[in-house]
Write a structure and sequence with these properties.
about 400 residues; mainly beta; 2 domains; 15-stranded parallel beta sheet; 3 helices; 33 strands; globular
């Protein structure tokens, strides 16, 4: 009788267990896939509605399937539309001479300006221009274009060329294994880089919240650059995306790692997003930004990033008791030691941070060797961060050696 009674108890449990095993589970959601609009059906047959795009944007997929919010219509000319730096700009902020190109992409028609032709020119390095006809042209980038790190490269679009990652691939990658040593220069000028996507490949080990979640890599939706010197003049970075969750990953448009001083002049960063550094991020990289515009960028992570054994008793692959999953630096992000950030003649508006620094996040790992944040002739407004604390000025979170802004309106 006892065996029969035990069997009667176990049979419902076993049946329930079998049903559980047959229950379909998937990690696919709009946020994990990075979708912003439309809908998709996951591997279990469940429909997910990913919302719609706001004014001035349209979904990249017109058939109703899930996609990304692209800026609608022609993009405005790059740079700050309402002001400029009143100081004399350094030579690094000027366009490079492209009058004697090493290579010309195209033979006079839009059809001749292809991904393969551009990749071949970049593989050789030097000064690269385009001959794609009189009308603006968009070149689909179907695989990440890897840049030479052993010689200088200039890519000059002549204000008629857009490189488009199709919401699928990172557009450009400069990867030198050294750190803060290279004098080689990458110059991007008179270009649009749009719809690039850097996808993470390494997840943090799954640990219970509030331990950090998300990706270790996946930086730089339009450009990732390690070592070397970057100069961007009259470039628009629009609708690019890096990994959306992770304590250390980021750079929706551009991510610089262990790089020499980078200069951005008359550039626009529009509607880019990443876990940290929604638009521009530098880890051990000095940043100088002149006459530029940051509008509608988003640091999509949350919880920031700290080493807190009391809240997370586990040590992750970064060697920390890491808490928080990003959300720092909606527009501009800087981290490291003894690095400087200069912002002059630049407008920063309508950016969002899931944690700190909707406009600028700037922190130093070594308080004895902090960098300096200098702001001149700037306008910053409607930058919203989810954490109300730690704002040196509205939308600016920093422990750098900050000086008072000069001729600037920050609200």
């Amino acid at each position: 009788m006892r065996l029969a009674h035990l069997a009667a108890l176990l049979l419902p449990l076993l049946a329930a267990g079998c049903n559980l095993e047959r229950t379909c589970r998937t990690t696919q959601r709009c946020d994990t896939q990075g979708f912003q609009c439309g809908a998709f059906v996951d591997g279990c047959g469940v429909r997910h509605d990913c919302g719609s795009c706001g004014a001035g944007r349209s979904c990249s997929r017109s058939d109703g399937t899930a996609g990304f919010c692209a800026l609608a219509g022609p993009l405005p000319r790059a740079g700050n539309p309402d002001g400029h730096c009143l100081s004399t700009l350094p030579p690094e902020a000027m366009p490079a001479d492209a009058s004697h190109p090493t290579a010309v992409v195209g033979t006079g028609t839009a059809a001749s300006c292809t991904h393969d032709a551009l990749a071949a020119a970049v593989a050789a390095g030097g000064v690269i221009t385009f001959d794609c006809g009189a009308d603006p042209v968009t070149i689909p980038v179907t695989a990440t274009i890897r840049l030479r790190t052993d010689r200088d490269t200039v890519i000059d679009g002549g204000n008629r060329v857009t490189l488009d990652g199709g919401f699928a691939v990172q557009i450009l990658r400069w990867e030198d294994g050294n750190w803060l040593t290279s004098d080689r220069v990458l110059t991007l000028q008179h270009l649009v880089l749009q719809n690039g996507k850097a996808t993470g490949t390494r997840l943090l080990a799954p640990l219970p919240a509030p331990c950090s979640q998300g990706w270790v890599d996946g930086q730089g939706g339009a450009l990732f650059m390690r070592n070397g010197i970057l100069r961007a003049v009259d470039v628009t970075f629009a609708g690019n995306q890096a990994a959306l969750v992770g304590p250390d990953t980021g750079g929706g448009a551009v991510y610089l790692l262990g790089a020499r001083p980078a200069t951005f002049s008359s550039c626009s960063f529009l509607a880019n997003r990443a876990s940290n550094a929604g638009a521009l991020g530098g880890l051990f990289a000095t940043l100088s930004v002149y006459d530029s515009l940051f509008d509608g960028n988003d640091a999509t992570g949350s919880g920031a990033n700290s080493d807190d054994a009391a809240r997370c008793p586990y040590v992750n692959e970064n060697g920390q008791h890491q808490v928080g999953s990003g959300g720092n630096g909606g527009a501009i992000y800087s981290d490291g030691v003894a690095m400087d950030v200069t912002v002059c003649g630049t407008q920063v508006r309508n950016n969002h941070a899931g944690a700190f620094g909707a406009a600028i996040f700037f922190t130093s790992n070594d308080q004895s060797r902090r960098g300096t944040l200098a702001i001149r002739d700037a306008l910053m407004f409607q930058n919203v961060q989810d954490e109300a604390a730690w704002q040196w000025r509205p939308g600016i979170s920093t422990n750098a050696a900050t000086v008072e802004p000069v001729n600037s309106d920050i609200r």
